[in-house]
Amino acid sequence: MTQLTLTPAAAKFIQRMVRFSGEPEGAGFRLLVSAGGCSGLNSEFSVVAAPQSGDSVVEASGVRLFLPAESRLLLEGVTVDFADTPTKSGLTFINPNQAPCACSSSAPAGAPSVQQHAHGHGHGHAMPGVATVGLDAIRRG
How are strands ordered across the β-sheet holding 56-60? Predict the structure, then answer.
């Protein structure tokens, strides 16, 4: 079974997404994570009525996650958080085993850290193993 951690903020966000999706009781949050992008992860998510063929159902912090095989591997040991600030809003993936992004290595020492967007490069110096998925990545299943 996949060992991942949901912060209370991430669990609350996912619970709200499922509750207000219009999907029937038993629906879940399908999280598709693939390798790539500056931070090491590209992600998409949607609320769906049932898991797709090959998905595993993972119960975490009171929410049902539907995870395809590749996502389960990439999320092993990862903490999923939710950020809601004036400049960004979305899921954030924190992987303590992920190396910093090489494209940001030219940032001066002591430069402020910013998180990487899951679909491309962030701005400034990257935090190791962090990807942010914006609300614009939400699709209805």
Answer: 56-60, 63-67, 28-35, 41-48, 138-140
> What span, in angstroms and rounded, lies between the C-alpha atoms of 138 and 140?
7
Structure tokens at 48: 């769906």
Burial level of 66, CB count in 10 A (0-12/13-18/19+)? Answer: buried
Q: Among 35, 34, 30, 74, which Cα is nearest to 53's? A: 30
Q: Which of 50, 53, 45, 58 is nearest to 27 (CA)?
A: 50
The Cα–Cα gap between 141 and 127 comes to 31
Of residues 118, 131, 53, the one with CA closest to residue 92: 131
For each of the chain's 141 residues, which pLDDT tens digit applies?
778 999 999 999 999 999 999 999 999 999 998 876 555 677 799 999 999 999 999 999 999 999 999 999 999 998 888 988 888 788 888 888 776 555 543 333 433 333 333 433 343 334 444 445 555 555 555
- Three-state SS string over 74-134 comes to HCCCCEEEEEECCCCEEEEEECCCCCCCHHHCCCCCCCCEEEEECCCCCCCEEEEEEEEEE
